[in-house]
Structure to design on (1212 residues):
């Protein structure tokens, strides 16, 4: 073994030792040490506007790890709510969050927060401040999902909802939103990252999922003994989406209007569309849309600028109130036509409301122009708000009946 | 030609598996009957009608070892006409994997995994089938030898274990007044699936004892006929008048079957039957089509076109048979007509070949 | 690679897409398992209210002790059709619904009277529902009533309800088991109408009599006025004993669920009910009784009550059209023995045995006749399928009669001949 090489190994050993020391220091967490017993994981954030004091009210839901463990599936019944809700007021969101430290025995950790709920009043005031806080904060993630509570209920009331199948409200709320989005297409799904992009893009406005809090009415069956601790008081129900202009809430889309918008922007997932029965008056048939796609084209000739939205959809027969035989070609085509008409009317109602009532381009027609026809955008872009309200949008739908489910015709019933 | 050999047992297994596969998927025959028992009669008549077809084709293909049906066709009819006939039959061969893949894709999407795109099933099965076809008949033969008894057992157990839900009273009445005309469509539908047996024209020359091909093909035909009749009786007596409304009969039967009250998940069995049956059927016909193309255009090796054929077949089934309604329309319309025409063509050809052979035998030289 | 290896690889590959579930991946935590479902009319006309029981994973898993928490969660949604209501449950549930484990489908009386075709269509078409689910109609109530009721012995309501229906169908036998598949078939078969098990939910009242030294004992409320009186043929047969809950920690049961005969349909609409005697009459006629206890008053001694245990019943029904109306001859053969008796019957008296036999025959005959009266003459519903018999024997004749069948049913002529055999006397020695 040569001398040079031995020297080399010595140097390498020294380097290795230095590395180990450095790593040990980092890994052990001697600096900035935070034990799990000493921190509170934020599981949800709600922001409200207090009109009396002009203050911003921040409510944070902090998970109780010991209670979650006990409430896990298979671990028996849930004896205690696995989270703790704490509230503070301030002039800005960060100010209010800072006030929280005075109340919470554990410092809040934001890295696991998945959801922010805005109260309607706060949203009408503009959510810019909240977005700024969430993007600037070191721990908060851009995949946080924004939601809007419709009605005069404070946003923090969302944390009073309970779901029997999931003990953590923010978790339950998110899963419910996901189902309403992907299986029914009656609400939207987005995250802070997308919201920021939309705010920075001209010619498109944002749309956030909206829900209301419904008291669990005692008439709906007396479910006594439902939960050990107390009966469920509120449950969340998705009611469509919240329409914004810039960062300010201007109004709401109901379920059909939201789905109309989803068809137009091409992000409709599955959906159930109920159409009248082709033969039996007063009876209905439900069709389950499984796939859909859309194509937008822009035309600028003669009568001014116009868009054409063509939607293709495929649906399965879900069920029917009375006997139906989809193998009869006449019924088959009539169902397809009715589905087309239903989808088209949803799109039209969304367009009408967005154009005439809110003048908010939640469809991103402006963005489409900016990307595909920059020369037109240069002309129309500066006063897009006015142009959008008057631009003609033609809609057309081509629907195909794909499958009947497990039977072709239903039971024949004489009435 | 290469000397790949399959045994008699493999031949029977292969034919049974191939014929039973469409029966386990969308069995559209039972959807076009006015009352269910007509389906049963159609099964019997259809099987009987298939006997002369299978006999003649088997005789024409097994008669002279080393020379295939196609080679003889081209010899008897002359090269250009013979080639056209070969291409026709090749297209017919390719229609079968097309239908089976379309049907299995639809069935999975309808019944088991509604969120999974049909593309996944079709492409995976087409790849497997083409792969098996590429490796040759021996592999396909061995596969069927293993799978066919399993599939038959599965089907019979589904029929047996739904017996407590059956009411044989539903087998009556047999005909509605003046309903003999109702038989035409179902009989042609049953028969159309039996035309799949024309694949023996490609198989018999590879049999280790070609002379036994006729008896073995007929045996396979009768086994299929018996199985179909048993399944049909089970379905009619279980579903009664709703038989013609059900989309997936064998699957629906599997859902009603149970062993006591502790085992009632027979539909898992159906998934296995579908996947293996469809893959093997597609493999057999892709192999047969590749072989036929090879002969029609005198290619030196034909196995290489198995993959392209697999892609073509899956592409067509994804674009043209991608919904249950489209599959229904195809399998009760164009398919029946095309297969009937093919059956007539093949029967005629076989007769012609048989006569030509006899003449040669009686006046040698 | 040997051939066998290749073969194994092929099969494994073929099954791979099935097991991995990479697409359409569904974890058990993502599912809401429906164990029982109920449909009622919604508040607005044309609306359907669907209520489901969803098994709570946490409550079902810990099965060792009686849970303090209800084991199912109850959720309702409304929609124009059952399918639409089922999908809109998604607005409220954090999990995805699957119907694969639903064993009971409850139907409110109002909904049943409006027609069950829409429900049946949904159950037949949907991919995760099972055709073997058992149907039950809630008499004088809504499906929600049945679904919010609790059961003393069984914490999972669907299991309790299914057990009750099974008992009533096999042991009493005063009910029927109708699955979705059965109803589908009956709706489609010419000349027969649907029957579905009936159930009732009654409020319970606490015992107020201070002399009773069992606190928490509950007693059923008095018979509701609409309830038909028990017929004389089987005294006290359907009387219920005191009912003691006491097994549920959290609260007393506020209601009790009990079987209540058979719901009779015409087409897909509920038209009336069979009481328990008539229901058993229906079962005698169908000839599928496996066991039943018939209580008789000893004809030779009116103070003695004898209960006869029917071991098997075989029936032969012949339907013919004579003089333009259906003529039905029923020949029933019942094998029975003596279950118990207040006073042991005199072993030396063959006439005693003979008279018991006659008494048994007349009770059964009366039950069958009462059932036919109620269905064919009152409700004009052909639940046995006399029409089907005609249709199967001669479809041509049926074509002519089909239109006026409900009128013909009213003029039905029934000849019932019951023949009872008393081969055994239980375990005691008593020859005849």
């Amino acid at each position: 073994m040569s001398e040079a090489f031995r020297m080399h190994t010595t140097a390498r050993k020294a380097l290795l030792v230095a590395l180990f020391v450095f790593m040990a220091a980092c890994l052990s967490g001697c600096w900035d040490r935070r034990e799990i017993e000493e921190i509170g994981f934020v599981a949800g954030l709600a922001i409200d506007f207090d009109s009396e004091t002009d203050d911003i009210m921040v409510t944070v839901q902090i998970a109780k790890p010991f209670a979650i463990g006990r409430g896990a599936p298979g671990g028996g019944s849930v004896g205690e709510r696995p989270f703790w809700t704490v509230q503070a007021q301030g002039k800005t969101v960060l100010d209010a969050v800072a006030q929280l430290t005075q109340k919470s025995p554990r410092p809040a950790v934001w890295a696991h927060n998945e959801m922010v709920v805005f109260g309607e009043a706060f949203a009408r005031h503009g959510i810019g401040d909240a977005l700024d806080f969430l993007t600037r904060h070191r721990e908060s993630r851009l995949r946080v999902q924004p939601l809007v509570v419709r009605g005069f209920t404070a946003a923090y009331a969302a944390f009073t909802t309970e779901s029997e199948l999931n003990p953590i409200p923010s978790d339950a709320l998110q899963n419910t939103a996901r189902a309403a989005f992907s299986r029914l297409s009656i609400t939207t799904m987005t995250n802070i990252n997308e919201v920021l992009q939309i705010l920075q893009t001209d010619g498109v406005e944002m749309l956030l999922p909206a829900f209301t809090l419904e008291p669990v009415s005692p008439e709906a069956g007396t479910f006594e003994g439902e939960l050990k601790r107390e009966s469920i008081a509120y449950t969340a129900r998705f009611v469509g989406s919240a329409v914004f202009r810039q960062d300010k809430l201007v109004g709401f889309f109901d379920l059909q209007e939201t789905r109309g918008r989803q068809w137009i922007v091409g992000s409709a997932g599955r959906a159930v569309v109920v159409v009248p029965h082709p033969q039996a008056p007063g009876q209905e048939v439900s069709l389950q849309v499984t796939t859909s796609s859309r194509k937008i084209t822009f035309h600028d000739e003669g009568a001014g600028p116009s868009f054409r939205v063509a939607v293709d959809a495929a649906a399965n027969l879900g069920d029917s109130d009375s006997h139906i035989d989809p193998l009869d070609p006449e019924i088959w085509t009539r169902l397809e036509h009715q589905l087309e008409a239903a989808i088209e009317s949803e799109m039209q109602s969304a367009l009408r409301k967005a154009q005439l009532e809110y003048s908010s381009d939640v469809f991103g027609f402006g963005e489409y122009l900016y990307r595909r026809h920059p020369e037109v955008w240069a002309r129309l872009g500066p006063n897009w708000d006015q142009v959008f309200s008057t631009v003609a949008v033609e809609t057309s739908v081509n629907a195909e009946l794909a499958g009947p489910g497990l039977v072709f015709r239903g039971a024949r019933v004489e009435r | 030609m290469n000397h790949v050999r399959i045994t008699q047992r493999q031949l029977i297994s292969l034919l049974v598996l191939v014929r039973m596969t469409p029966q386990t998927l969308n069995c559209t025959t039972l959807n076009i009957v006015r009352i269910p028992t007509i389906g049963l009669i159609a099964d019997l008549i259809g099987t009987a009608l298939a006997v002369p077809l299978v006999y003649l084709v088997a005789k024409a293909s097994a008669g002279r070892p080393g020379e295939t049906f196609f080679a003889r066709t081209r010899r008897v009819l002359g090269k250009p006409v013979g080639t056209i006939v070969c291409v026709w039959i090749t297209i017919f061969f390719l229609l079968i994997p097309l239908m089976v893949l379309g049907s299995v894709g639809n069935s999975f999407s309808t019944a088991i995994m509604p969120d999974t795109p049909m593309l996944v099933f079709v492409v995976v099965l087409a790849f497997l089938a083409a792969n098996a076809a590429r490796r040759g008949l021996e592999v396909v033969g061995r596969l069927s030898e293993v799978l066919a008894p399993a599939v038959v057992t599965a089907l019979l157990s589904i029929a047996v274990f739904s017996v407590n839900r059956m009411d044989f009273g539903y087998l009556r009445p047999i005909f509605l007044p003046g309903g003999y005309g109702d038989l035409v469509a179902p009989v042609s539908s049953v028969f159309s699936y039996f035309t799949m047996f024309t694949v023996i024209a490609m198989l018999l020359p590879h049999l280790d004892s070609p002379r036994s091909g006729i008896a073995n093909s007929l045996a396979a035909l009768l086994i299929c006929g018996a199985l179909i009749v048993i399944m049909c009786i089970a379905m009619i007596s279980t579903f009664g008048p709703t038989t013609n409304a059900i989309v997936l009969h064998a699957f629906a039967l599997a859902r009603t079957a149970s062993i006591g009250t502790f085992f009632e998940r027979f539909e898992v069995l159906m998934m296995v039957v579908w996947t293996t049956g469809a893959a093997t059927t597609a493999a057999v016909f892709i192999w047969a089509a590749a072989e036929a193309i090879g002969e029609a255009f005198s290619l030196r090796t034909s196995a290489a076109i198995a993959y392209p054929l697999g892609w073509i077949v899956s592409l067509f089934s994804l674009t043209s048979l991608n919904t249950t309604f489209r599959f229904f329309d195809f399998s009760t319309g164009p398919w029946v007509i095309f297969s009937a025409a093919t059956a007539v063509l093949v029967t005629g050809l076989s007769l012609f070949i048989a006569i030509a052979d006899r003449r040669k035998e009686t006046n040698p030289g | 690679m040997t051939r066998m290896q290749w073969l194994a690889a092929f099969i494994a590959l073929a099954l791979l897409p099935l097991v991995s579930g990479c697409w359409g991946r569904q974890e058990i935590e993502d599912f809401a398992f429906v164990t029982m479902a109920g449909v009622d009319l919604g508040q607005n006309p044309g609306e359907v209210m669907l209520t489901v029981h969803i098994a709570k994973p946490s409550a079902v898993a810990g099965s060792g002790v009686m849970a303090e928490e209800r084991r199912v969660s109850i959720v309702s949604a409304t929609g124009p059709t059952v399918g639409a209501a089922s999908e809109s449950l998604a607005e409220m549930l954090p999990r995805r619904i699957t119907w694969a484990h639903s064993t009971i489908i409850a139907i409110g009386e109002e909904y049943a009277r409006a027609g069950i075709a829409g429900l049946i269509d949904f159950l037949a078409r949907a991919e995760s529902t099972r055709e073997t689910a058992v149907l039950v109609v809630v008499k004088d109530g809504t499906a929600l009533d049945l679904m919010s009721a609790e059961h003393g012995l069984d914490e999972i309501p669907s299991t309790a309800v299914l057990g009750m229906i099974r008992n009533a169908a096999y042991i009493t036998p005063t009910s029927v088991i109708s699955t979705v598949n059965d109803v589908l078939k009956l709706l489609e078969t010419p000349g027969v109408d649907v029957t579905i098990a009936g159930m009732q939910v009654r409020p319970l009242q606490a015992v107020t009599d201070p002399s009773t030294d069992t606190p928490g004992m509950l007693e059923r409320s008095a018979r509701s006025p609409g309830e038909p009186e028990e017929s004389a043929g089987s005294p006290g047969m359907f009387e219920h004993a005191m009912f003691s809950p006491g097994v549920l920690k959290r609260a007393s049961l506020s209601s009790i669920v009990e079987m209540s005969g058979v719901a009779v349909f015409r087409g897909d609409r509920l038209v009336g009910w069979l009481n328990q005697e008539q229901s058993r009459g229906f079962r005698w006629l169908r000839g599928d009784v496996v066991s039943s206890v018939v209580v008789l008053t000893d004809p030779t001694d009116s103070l003695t009550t004898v209960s006869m245990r029917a071991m098997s019943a075989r029936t032969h029904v012949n339907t013919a059209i004579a003089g333009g109306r259906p003529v039905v001859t029923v020949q029933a053969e019942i094998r029975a023995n003596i279950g118990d008796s207040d006073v042991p019957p005199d072993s030396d008296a063959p006439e005693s045995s003979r008279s018991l036999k006659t008494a048994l025959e007349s009770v059964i005959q009366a039950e069958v006749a009462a059932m036919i009266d109620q269905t064919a003459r009152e409700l004009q519903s052909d639940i046995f399928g006399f029409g089907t018999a005609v249709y199967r024997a001669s479809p041509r004749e049926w074509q002519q009669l089909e239109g006026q069948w409900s009128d013909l049913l009213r003029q039905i002529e029934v000849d019932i001949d019951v023949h009872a055999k008393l081969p055994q006397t239980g375990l005691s020695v008593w020859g005849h």
About this structure: Chain A has a mean pLDDT of 82. The CA atoms of residues 4 and 10 of chain A lie 10 Å apart.
